[in-house]
């Protein structure tokens, strides 16, 4: 398996993987909308034997500091629970950390995302439509920045409802 940047040739395969992983098209349409709007900063695929089996996206957010949203993370159902998602998340974090981003926010299972350093308490001071017990933050920067404030996701997220 390799993890690499998504190319235009991957668009259809990514749509299918995301739709199958979530059992509906809404998240796949979200990825398309984020890409078309230019809001995806990092878009990675996991490829095995020439086939896309996973995808993760990081999109820019409006925040008190440079921040990204991790969403969605998708793995083809037959390949779930085999390390594909973890490989995608680790590479996305590595790439974001190599640039000027200060943090990544995610809405997800704390038991899963804690292994990468995401923390529910770190996100507690932020106002977001997704705030709550599954909303987490990973700091990418040792810089001191506000640990509270308003977060706005790209407009494409509003379509998820």
Question: Could you explain how this protein is built, in words?
Answer:
This protein is 29% helix and 29% strand. The chain is of the alpha/beta class and 161 residues long. It has a single domain (2-160), classed as Gcn5-related N-acetyltransferase (GNAT) (Aminopeptidase), CATH 3.40.630. The strands form 2 sheets. The protein has a 6-stranded mixed β-sheet. Strands 6-8 form a two-stranded parallel sheet.
**Total count of domains:** 1
Q: How would a textbook summarize the main sheet?
A: 6 strands, mixed
What structural class should be given to the helix and strand makeup? Answer: alpha/beta
In what range is the share of β-strand residues? 25-35%
Rounded Rg: 15 Å
CATH topology value: Aminopeptidase
- Please report the first level of CATH classification, the CATH class: Alpha Beta
CATH superfamily: Gcn5-related N-acetyltransferase (GNAT)
Query: Ranges with pLDDT <50 over ≥5 residues?
Result: none
Strands side by side in the biggest sheet: 1-2-3-4-5-7
The H-and-E topology, N to C, reads as EHHEEEHEHHEEE
Mean pLDDT: 95
Give the termini separation.
Answer: 34 Å
The appropriate CATH architecture is: 3-Layer(aba) Sandwich
Kindly state the number of beta strands: 8
What is the share of helical residues? Answer: 25-40%
């Amino acid at each position: 398996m390799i993890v690499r940047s998504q190319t235009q040739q991957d668009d259809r395969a990514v749509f299918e993987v995301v739709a199958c992983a979530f059992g509906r098209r809404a998240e796949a349409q979200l990825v398309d909308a984020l890409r078309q709007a230019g809001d995806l900063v990092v878009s990675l695929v996991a490829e095995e034997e020439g086939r896309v089996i996973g995808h993760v996206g990081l999109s820019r957010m409006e925040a008190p500091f440079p921040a990204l949203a991790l969403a969605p993370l998708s793995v083809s159902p037959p390949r779930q629970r085999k390390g594909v998602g973890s490989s995608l998340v680790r590479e996305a974090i590595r790439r974001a950390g190599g640039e000027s981003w200060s943090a990544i926010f995610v809405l997800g299972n704390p038991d899963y995302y804690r292994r990468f350093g995401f923390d529910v308490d770190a996100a507690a001071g932020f106002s977001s439509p997704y705030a709550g017990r599954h909303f987490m933050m990973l700091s990418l920067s040792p810089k001191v920045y506000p640990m509270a404030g308003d977060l706005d996701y790209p407009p494409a997220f509003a379509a998820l409802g």
